[in-house]
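Lay summary

Proteins are chains of building blocks that fold into shapes. Our project writes down both the chain and a compact code for its shape. Here are two examples, one after the other.
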Amino acid sequence: MSMIYPSIDELVTHVDSKYTLVIAAAKRARQILDGNSILVETDSTKDVTIALEEISTGKLEYEKTKEGIK
């Protein structure tokens, strides 16, 4: 059995809810896919994993608005 890194429990401490975590990670993964630079050193090639690592290290900030997360 392999462990998921970063863990969900640790990631949720950086956001206000699991919903916010999912939306922020998905939006950031799309930005990475579109060619935006990666903010962390990583061995992963998967955009979602990279986005989660950025959230875990505090490199990614988000803003909640009435229209959604920016």
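And here is the second example, written the same way.
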Amino acid sequence: MVKVIYHGKKWDIEAGITVRQAMERVGLDPRQVLAVRHGKLIADEALLKEGDEITLVSIISGG
């Protein structure tokens, strides 16, 4: 399983899917969040591996 964390909420998702699929499974819009694994940003297409812990962070823009 993969642990997905977003604003204090945690989900266990099956391994072997992409970051984008994990975001969609937990009901988040992939255009509005970024994924971090081991302190580094990872692409939406990255495959999640057994034991991964992914933190999702909101994209904040401004001007």
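What can we say about the second shape? Residues 19-25 form the longest helix (7 residues).
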